[in-house]
Amino acid sequence: MTVTNDPIRQLAPNGPLVTEDHERHQFRVHRSTMTSPEIHALEIERVFGRSWLYVGHESEIREPGDFVRRPVGNRQVFMIRSKKTGQVNVFHNSCTHRGAMVCRRDAGNAKVLQCFYHAWSFNTDGKLIGVPDREAYGEALDFTTLGLRSVARVQSYRGFVFASFDPHIVDLEEYLAGAREYLDLVVDSMEDPQIINGTNQYAINANWKLLAENSIDGYHAASTHDTYLKYLVALGTDLASGINGTAKSLGNGHAVLEYAAPWGRPVAKWEPLFGEHARSEIERLRADLVGRYGEERAQRMADTNRNLLIYPNLVVNDIMAVTVRTFIPVSPDRMEVTAWEMAPRDELPQLRQRRLDSFLTFLGPGGFATPDDIEALESCQEGFRSGGVEWNEISRGMSRHPLANDEEQMRAFWRRWNEQIIGAIG
User: Fold this and answer.
1) CATH number for 107
2) Taking the CA atoms of the chain, what radius of gyration do you get in angstroms?
């Protein structure tokens, strides 16, 4: 139901922010969604405050006491494995005494977390276990209520840990909907998957929703990444068949771009870039997948790429390498991006090197793709500032079954965004 008394309506005086006209095959998004401080503030509350958000992977905190800290939905949190139970806990990174951040390193292992401000100490389950000069507080204060505060909901799916600040949100598996199938493909394609140490971190001077679109946009590949495609052809990769596949809505704003891989995949698809010495290794990997999952599922794992968006801001690129990427809005025209690489834990060194080379060559900060995408998104943001054009067109493919270079996957994102911010599409 449309919320008619919402103050956000004042931001689009001529009508709604998102429109969908099936008869005219037109889907439009008002450009104020990319520039308005008021909309940005509402997104923090209504999108990031009421969705499941990716925190990290269980492999990052494999041992009891291991922790990582990071911003999630513009809030500082940290994830730590309990020394007592082995459970994964996610806490607000704020001392219950006076508010200072308790966890002050990005990663590590701890028996006790001590606030540097007044030295209050907490164990890995968040219990307050140390207060200097405790006698000064007397006997009436109940210190058992002053442990670290857990994020409202924490759940894990296949090792991917999510948190939500909404205590009433649906369970994670229901929220993930059709995205579960694609996470399963990633996890099942490798034994004991782990996040490799190290991250790519950078900022983009553009609205965060532009990267959500870009991450599942097959339409821009040939034009924006022309240099990379020419590089692959020069190395002997056959790209004559182009990018063939489908774009799908997976429910709850999640979407996927799935297509036949025109390049090699370290999972089990050889290409000349990998060298002849790697052919037998990759054939062995492929045979192993067939033995475990059958020919059809193994072929899908080995020969198809997937760009998966889990609403609102998690992207899993299962392409020439497996990349896990999040992006957080800092302001209407700036976001911070973090990307990790996922790989089998006990992968042979030469296979690991090939995977990392593939990852960095295309998706690294200095690779072929990422600088191109940053330039495109920042160019869009500059164009929005110019004014004169009120709407973005996201209509490609509305008149047919969506293909890999259509935009149905973006429309799925925007329908959910609009539902959370305003209500039903007008």
Assistant:
1) 2.102.10.10
2) 23
What was the pLDDT predicted at 364?
Answer: 75
Q: Is the pLDDT at 31 greater than 80, yes or no?
A: yes
Query: Is residue 101 within 8 Å of 93, Cβ to Cβ?
Result: yes
d(CA 167, CA 153): 6
pLDDT band with cut points at 50, 70 and 90 for residue 68: very high
- Give the chain's largest Cα–Cα span: 78
The answer to whether the CB of 321 falls within 8 A of the CB of 266 is yes
Residues 317 and 232 in one domain: yes
State both tokens at 211. 């990267």
3-class DSSP assignment, residue 164:
strand
The parent domain of residue 333 ranges over 178-388
Helix ranges restricted to H, 179-278:
179-188, 208-215, 221-224, 226-234
What are the tens digits of pLDDT across the range 238-259? 666 666 789 999 999 999 999 8
In a domain, residue 33? The reply is no
**What's the rounded Cα separation, in Å, for the pair 425 and 344?**
42
d(CA 64, CA 59): 12
**Quick one: which of 155, 165, 152 has its CA closest to 50?**
165
Q: What is the pLDDT of residues 32-60, one digit of tens each?
A: 999 999 999 999 999 999 999 999 999 99
CATH number reported for the structural domain that contains residue 189 in this entry: 3.90.380.10
CA–CA gap between residue 179 and residue 364 (Å, rounded): 25
pTM for this one? 0.92
* Residue 239, in any domain of the structure: yes
Residue 367: phi and psi, rounded to 5, are: -80, -170
> What's the CA angle centered on 57, arms 187 and 89, to 5 degrees?
135
d(CA 152, CA 167): 5
Residue 115 DSSP code: -
Number of compact structural domains in the chain: 2
Alpha-carbon span 316 to 323, nearest angstrom: 6
